[in-house]
Every structure is written in structure tokens, then in C-alpha cells.
TrEMBL record:
Residues 40-202 form the Helicase ATP-binding domain. It comes from Chlamydomonas leiostraca. PANTHER family: PROTEIN TRANSLOCASE SUBUNIT SECA2, CHLOROPLASTIC, SECA INNER MEMBRANE COMPONENT OF SEC PROTEIN SECRETION SYSTEM. InterPro entries: Helicase_ATP-bd (IPR014001), P-loop_NTPase (IPR027417), SecA (IPR000185), SecA_DEAD (IPR011115), SecA_motor_DEAD (IPR014018), SecA_preprotein_X-link_dom (IPR011130), SecA_X-link_sf (IPR036670). Pfam families: SecA_DEAD, SecA_PP_bind. This is chloroplast protein-transporting ATPase. It comes from the Eukaryota. GO terms for biological process: intracellular protein transport; protein import; protein targeting. It catalyses: ATP + H2O + chloroplast-proteinSide 1 = ADP + phosphate + chloroplast-proteinSide 2. GO terms for molecular function: ATP binding; chloroplast protein-transporting ATPase activity.
């Protein structure tokens, strides 16, 4: 094939024979012969599109077809992107037998490799790697001190992304960050937390008190129970009550992830810091009492520390955004639920959460290089993806990456029943219906897998 390419044969012209060779080799080496539907999926991927293939249709085997074909041109490197290290290692080991039989090299990248092994893995014709590892390799290359430290090929040629909707859509704007350690004012962070904590507890108790008043009013008014419509009205009133009571202390913008204290709360923060012995240099020098302005103009930057502490209390919840394990605050990926052990929030937020949880405060960091999946994967000359749930995101795939989504038929007629989505206004009704559904399935002897959006909901389901 490579000789014919050197003679000017177009790559697309080799597709029928190359796919046939891969299919036969997979049958001999793995005992698995590509179904016709899998051949179609391979063609979709080779054309640089997103193939929607149902769970169980064998996407791992499908990837061998376009991966082999696109690794044939000289100096070509194909990256098959998986969601975790285990799948990268497993797929490279299993599918690597096909590539090796066909004369190509194959390797997997894992997070614990040293530089020589990184170089060897990325130098292979076909490399299995997670999206995160690939993105950080790009950042390290762009901040490398010497050409000998570079690991990625000069040209990013072709990438096949498994679970493409998760990586290219759900996680597309999550930044990958390389950072350097910063000198951190641990005493200041602890002191500010000491002042902010009672204020936040006071606000929370006021909110909880008024929520209970609203709920009790509705329970007293509708002693015989409320229908679904009235439950929705009650929940709307509860939400408005939360906004009104909390607004007496600070305004929370969930979309922008910001907390803005009222002037009265800023004054109380200033008074609390003064009571704790904080000296504001300008006020002392000018012989006047400290003012709210000094919170933001003093070298200690107390105002920023206080607002960051409020964000830690109001916007970041244990079990949803992070967990505390072995005396450390570990982030939770909100899209996958997996722990992000080596990632820290920036701009002092992680230190504020550590103070909130009463664990050791580790040094903060300064971002020196950052990129998102959305920007990184656009750098590839050809990009393709596969997933079981692509069609609902077809418009976003095309808008962000100019990728078309193609639904690939199943090998056999689908016998599974896919129930439509059910939307609930009231969380309590949703939980009640979920429990009833699980009980019915259990009575029928059917196992049930329940997926949730965060650890807190998982624990509630378990209870």
C-alpha cells in the first residue's frame, strides 16, 4: 500500500482493499471479523465525520479500519483517543496485534511514563491515549525548554475520538492548565475563613428558616395534600424566598459563578478583620479608621480573599464539586463523575476550599499555559469521532468542529426499548417515581444501573 501511495495513488482509492485486509487480519489474529455495519462505521470515520453507533456494536474494533488506512502515508501518526488510561492500554494491547501483523507500530500513553517512553509512544504509527494526556503533551511541548523535550509529531494528522460527545461537547471548554507554584498567604486565607464562616452560617440559617416558613404555610393550607401543579407553585415560591433572603447578604450569579457581597456585608467583613488584628497600611499611615475601600487596595488584598472564600462556601459543595480524602480536597469532574486528583482550582479558590474544610492548605499556582479541547482538537488535519449518543448534539458538532454526524445501523435489529425522557419540575416527585421504578424492576428480577450527575446524588440514591 505504501508503495502505491508513493506512486501517487490517492489514499481513498486504497480504502476497499485496506479495509478488507484489516477485516481478514482481525479474523485471523483476534477471532473477530468486522460486521458490515462496522465497515460502514469505519468509512464514516475515515471521511472525518462522527459515527453514532449503539452500545455493544464494537466501536473499538471499528477504529482499527480508519486507523490503519490513515497511518499508511509517510510520517503519518494516528491518535485514537479514549476516556481513561485503562481503555487506552487495553485497546492498544488487543488491537495492536492487528496493527503489528500488518507491519505498523502501536503504543499506549499512560500518565506515569517518563520522557523516553512518552517519545516512543507518540512516535508509534498508531497511539492510544486519553484526551487529557494528549492535551497536556501539547502544552508541555509548547513550554519545553529544549527541542529534545518535544514528544508530539510536528503535524497533528488524524485523531479518532471515542465518546466524542463527552470529549468534544461536554468537556470542550474545560481548560487544561500547566502551572507553577506561587507563594501563598496561608495565614491570610485562614483568617479570612474565620471571618467569613459565621457570616455564611448566619445567611444559611436565615434562608433555611424562611424556607421552612413557606413550606409550612403550604402544608397548613393544603392539609389533604397538593397536586403536581401546586407543588410546582410551592417550589417556585421557595426559590424566590431563597433569592430574596440571600440577597440581603450577597448576590449569587450561578451562570457566571460569582458572589457579590452587599455594602453592609463588606462592612462586617472589614470589622471582623480589624477585630482579628489585621492592620491596613494606608489607614494607619493616614491616621484614620479603615474603610471598605481598604479591603481591595491594601497589599493583603483582603477583599479578594473574602470574596473567594464566599465563592468557596456558596458555589462549591462537597460531594458535588469535590470530596475530602486523606486530608486533601480532590476535584470531581462534573461531566464524568471521576476524580481529578492532580487538578487544582485557580486564583486562590482551592486554598479557600481547603480552609473551609479545615485541611492543610497547599501552595497555590500560576497558570503558565492553558488550552481547551475545543481549541486543541481543531488543530488536527482530520478529526473523527464515535459515540452512542451523537445525533442529539449534531448541530453542536457541526458548529464547533464542522463535523457531520452519521447514524450507523446496528448489526442486528434492535430489540431494546429506549424510553423517552421524562422531565420533572419537582425533585421529590422525580425521586419518588425513581424508587417505584426500581422496586418494579427488582420485583421482576431485573438488575438496575442508576446514573447520577454527582456524588451527592449517588449517595442519596443509595440511601
Amino acid at each position: 500500500f505504501r508503495a502505491r501511495l508513493a506512486q501517487g495513488t490517492p489514499l481513498d482509492a486504497l480504502l476497499p482493499e485496506a479495509f478488507a485486509v484489516v477485516r481478514e487480519v482481525a479474523r485471523r489474529v483476534l477471532g473477530m471479523r468486522h460486521f458490515d455495519s462496522q465497515m460502514v462505521g469505519g468509512m464514516v470515520l475515515h471521511e472525518g465525520q462522527v459515527a453514532e453507533m449503539m452500545t455493544g456494536e464494537g466501536k473499538t474494533l471499528v477504529a482499527t479500519l480508519p486507523a490503519y488506512l490513515n497511518a499508511l502515508p509517510p510520517a503519518s501518526h494516528v491518535h485514537v483517543v479514549t476516556v481513561n488510561d485503562y481503555l487506552a492500554a487495553r485497546d492498544a494491547e488487543q488491537m495492536g496485534k492487528v496493527y503489528t501483523f500488518l507491519g505498523l507500530s502501536c503504543a499506549a500513553v499512560s500518565s506515569n511514563m517518563d520522557l523516553p517512553r512518552y517519545k516512543a509512544a507518540y512516535g508509534a504509527d498508531i497511539t492510544y491515549v486519553t484526551a487529557t494526556e494528549l492535551g497536556f503533551a501539547y502544552l508541555r511541548d509548547n513550554t519545553a525548554a529544549s527541542p529534545t523535550d518535544l514528544v508530539l509529531p510536528e503535524v497533528l494528522g488524524y485523531a479518532i475520538i471515542d465518546e466524542a460527545d463527552s470529549i468534544l461537547i461536554d468537556e470542550s471548554r474545560n481548560p487544561l492548565i500547566i502551572s507553577l507554584p506561587l507563594t501563598m498567604n496561608e495565614r491570610g486565607v485562614r483568617l479570612v475563613d474565620k471571618v467569613v464562616r459565621p457570616l455564611w452560617q448566619e445567611a444559611r440559617e436565615a434562608v433555611d428558616k424562611d424556607i421552612e416558613i413557606v413550606r409550612n404555610w403550604y402544608r397548613g393550607r393544603y392539609k389533604d395534600g397538593m397536586d403536581e401543579g401546586m407543588r410546582q407553585v410551592m417550589e417556585r415560591d421557595v426559590a424566590q424566598t431563597v433569592e430574596a433572603v440571600r440577597g440581603q447578604y450577597w448576590k449569587v450569579d450561578m451562570r457566571q459563578r460569582t458572589v457579590t457581597p452587599t455594602p453592609a456585608v463588606l462592612q462586617r467583613l472589614l470589622d471582623g478583620l480589624v477585630a482579628e488584628g489585621v492592620v491596613f497600611a494606608a489607614a494607619q499611615r493616614e491616621g484614620r479608621p479603615p474603610s471598605v475601600t481598604d479591603l481591595f487596595e491594601d497589599a493583603g488584598n483582603w477583599g479578594r480573599l473574602a470574596i473567594t472564600a464566599l465563592q468557596a462556601y456558596e458555589l462549591h459543595n462537597p460531594g458535588q464539586h469535590y470530596i475530602v480524602r486523606d486530608g486533601r480536597v480532590i476535584l470531581i469532574d462534573e461531566n464524568t463523575g471521576r476524580l481529578r486528583d492532580i487538578t487544582r482550582w485557580q486564583h486562590g479558590l482551592h486554598s479557600a476550599v481547603e480552609a473551609k474544610e479545615g485541611v492543610a492548605i497547599r501552595e497555590d499556582s500560576l497558570a503558565t499555559a492553558t488550552i481547551t479541547f475545543q481549541v486543541f482538537f481543531r488543530a488536527y488535519a482530520k478529526l473523527a469521532g464515535m459515540t452512542g449518543t451523537a445525533l442529539p448534539s449534531a448541530a453542536e458538532f457541526y458548529e464547533l468542529y464542522h463535523l457531520k454526524v452519521v447514524g450507523v445501523p446496528t448489526n442486528r435489529p434492535l430489540v431494546r426499548y429506549d424510553a423517552p425522557s421524562r422531565l420533572y419540575w419537582d425533585p421529590d416527585t422525580r425521586w419518588r417515581d425513581l424508587c417505584e421504578l426500581v422496586q418494579r424492576c427488582w420485583a421482576e428480577g431485573r438488575p438496575v444501573l442508576i446514573g447520577t450527575t454527582n456524588v451527592g446524588e449517588s449517595e442519596r440514591v443509595a440511601q
